[in-house]
Amino acid sequence: MTLVLSLLGTVVSVVVLSTLARLQAARAQAEAAQRLAAENQLRLLQSQLEPHMLFNTLANLRVLIGLDPARALAMLDHLIAFLRATLNASRQAEHPLATEFEHLADYLALMAVRMGPRLQVRLDLPAPLATLAVPPLLLQPLVENSIKHGLEPQVEGGRIEVRAQQQERSLVLTVRDTGVGLGTADTPAGGGFGLVQVRQRLATLYGGRARLTLQAVTDGDGGVLATIRLPMP
Q1: Which pTM does this prediction carry?
Q2: What is the pLDDT of residues 147-156, one digit of tens each?
Q3: 191: domain CATH number?
């Protein structure tokens, strides 16, 4: 009886350990597949967003070189910094939130050269949140969407505000513009390609623990507020 019980215990242990090993292998494969999907989505996002912005920037540079060489040089410096940061981001699964804001600053500086005084910018990143790790190029599609669909169609332009804050156990990233608002021909309520990609990346990386929402702003300035909620690391 003792021998039988010992053998039974050994068999059960082997079965349990084998099952655990298979589960761990399956989990590792699933995580690898998720990382690969996120990387592919990032590359797809870059391939769709960058050419349009790059062509417009180069066209503006061509005009500025003859009219205002100093301003053209400043624009070129921002473009180089932006492209360098984009290349680095494509090689990383995540980077500090401060790096994300620096990348946005270069992008918005390029847009400011194009739009002039029609574009006003506010970036708000509290120091305690600067080192938090986030997926790269997460905010740029929201900022580009605000400029393209919110501010550029408006003759007087407007303001764009990007903020980070902690709310309980969530990192909340917001992009607010004072543009034409939701539900217009220029600003479809569902957002464009960039917003779809952001939602897909969040679903891939965080499942149901992260989300992106869009809402109309009802204060005197109007516009749209895009909000990303991420679990705190």
Answers
A1: 0.73
A2: 988 998 988 9
A3: 3.30.565.10
